[in-house]
């Protein structure tokens, strides 16, 4: 009897063991399905990995869009001066209301510091003179041409991304960089930037300041004005997606897949410092090359933040369907790129944040004439000057006018003919 009892117990344990194995295999496969999307290599990075894999926008993107290798899969974790050469040829897609003017300043200062050729417009005044291309402007018609024996290095002014047109004027080894921001934040920023808050105040004088954006959304005021319609899916438009295609999810996803092949890095405004350190590594630039001070940074009027309901937010998200797909795809990709970095990356980011804080403190204190940034693992010793601070706060249009004027003088000196 005892032997029979033990045989039954052994059989029961075998069944339980088999059941546990089956459950483990199922769970393991489900994890593989999620992880295979972007091949995460780190298991602990401040919740980035967990957040990326569980976000609704991430899950909504079909698995087939992650089957092949992306642009960044074979990139090394860290670039050093011993293993790479400073990249001089870069396209930066300047996207409206994303913090792109701050990033634009980084590229223009790099041009000036290294005596490079920037793609500049022919005009230096008038409406939209700083645009290289738009709905009404063609790149080949607006650009200040260089002599045949010279080539452009940096393209960073406002221009709708067009791979074929850009490739015609830029060197073959050009690296593409973009920038994106949470579409809800873009919508809010545009509301204030284009003075729609004042419009709502005039139309509805009894509405509280904090509810003006709410009224703008629920009353669909944005549909009544061309500029209001223009900043829905504006990021997608700047990246080259036609307005007529923004509601076509299949088209947008296929287009994003092509962008994934083209762009080495897309800066995410909410991870700006991390993006810049990653860019520095990919381009083999110095920390001095990526210093910045925020410009055109909007503030809530009278410090009153807009009060939005969940329904308001959903309306904005639906209005910006293409932008949401674009943003969440590249935000997830950036998080993956960060996860692939080694521990020194995060130490460098902390170090960079301290340097940026020193830059801001020094530039605000007009009594000091200079500030020494000490040598570290990631930078040699360098000195901040008042002239550098002035460069940080000079307006985009003023910088551009000076660069155009200098470029034209250089061309005249070389006996080149350009259209006035």
Can you put this structure into words, describing what you see?
- It is globular, with a radius of gyration of 26 Å.
- The model is unreliable at 25-55, 63-81 and 416-420 (pLDDT under 50).
- It has 18 helices and 6 strands.
- It starts with a helix and ends in a 7-residue tail after the last helix.
- The strands form 2 sheets. It has a 4-stranded parallel sheet, with helices on both faces.
- The protein has 420 residues and is mostly helical.
Write the layout of secondary structure elements.
Blueprint: H1 2-35, H2 48-54, H3 56-60, E1 90-92, H4 100-113, H5 139-142, E2 154-155, H6 163-169, E3 175-180, H7 183-193, H8 196-203, H9 212-218, H10 226-230, H11 234-238, H12 249-262, E4 265-268, H13 272-283, H14 310-319, H15 321-339, H16 343-364, E5 370-373, E6 382-385, H17 386-393, H18 396-413
Parallel strand pairs: 1-2, 1-3, 3-4
Antiparallel strand pairs: 5-6
Helix pairs in contact: 2-15, 8-9, 12-15, 13-16
Entry summary:
The chain has helices spanning 2-35, 48-54, 56-60, 100-113, 139-142, 163-169, 183-193, 196-203, 212-218, 226-230, 234-238, 249-262, 272-283, 310-319, 321-339, 343-364, 386-393, 396-413, and strands spanning 90-92, 154-155, 175-180, 265-268, 370-373, 382-385. The protein is mainly alpha-helical.
């Amino acid at each position: 009897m005892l032997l029979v009892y033990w045989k039954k117990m052994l059989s029961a344990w075998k069944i339980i063991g088999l059941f546990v194995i089956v459950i483990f295999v199922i769970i393991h496969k489900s994890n593989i399905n999620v992880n295979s999307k972007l091949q995460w290599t780190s298991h602990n990075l401040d919740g980035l990995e967990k957040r990326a894999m569980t976000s609704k926008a991430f899950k909504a993107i079909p698995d087939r869009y992650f089957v092949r290798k992306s642009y960044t899969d074979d990139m090394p974790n860290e670039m050093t001066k011993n293993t790479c050469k400073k990249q001089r040829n870069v396209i930066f897609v300047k996207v409206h209301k994303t913090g792109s003017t701050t990033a634009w300043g980084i590229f223009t200062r790099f041009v000036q510091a290294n005596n490079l050729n920037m793609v500049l417009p022919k005009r230096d005044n008038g409406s939209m003179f700083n645009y290289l291309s738009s709905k009404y402007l063609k790149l080949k018609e607006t650009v200040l041409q260089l002599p045949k024996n010279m080539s452009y290095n940096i393209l960073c002014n406002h221009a709708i991304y067009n791979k074929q047109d850009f490739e015609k004027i830029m060197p073959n080894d050009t690296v593409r960089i973009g920038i994106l921001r949470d579409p809800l934040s873009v919508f809010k920023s545009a509301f204030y930037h284009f003075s729609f808050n004042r419009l709502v105040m005039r139309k509805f004088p009894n509405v509280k300041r904090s509810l003006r954006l709410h009224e703008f959304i629920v009353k669909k005021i944005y549909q009544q004005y061309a500029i209001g319609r223009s900043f829905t899916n504006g990021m997608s438009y700047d990246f080259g997606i036609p307005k007529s295609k923004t509601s076509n999810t299949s088209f947008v996803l296929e287009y994003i897949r092509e962008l994934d092949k083209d762009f080495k890095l897309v800066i995410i405004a909410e991870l700006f410092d991390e993006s810049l350190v990653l860019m520095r590594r990919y381009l083999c630039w110095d920390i001095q090359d990526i210093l910045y001070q925020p410009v055109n940074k909007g503030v809530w009027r009278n410090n009153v933040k807009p009060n939005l309901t969940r329904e308001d937010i959903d309306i904005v998200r639906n209005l910006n369907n293409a932008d949401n797909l674009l943003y969440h795809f590249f935000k997830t990709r950036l998080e993956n790129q960060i996860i692939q970095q080694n521990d020194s990356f995060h130490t460098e980011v902390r170090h960079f944040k301290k340097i940026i804080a020193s830059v801001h403190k020094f530039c605000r204190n007009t009594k000091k004439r200079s500030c020494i940034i000490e040598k570290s693992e990631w930078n040699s010793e360098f000195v901040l000057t008042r002239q550098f601070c002035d460069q940080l706060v000079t307006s985009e249009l003023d910088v551009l006018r000076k660069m155009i004027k200098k470029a034209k003088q250089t061309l005249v000196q070389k006996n080149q003919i350009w259209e006035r």
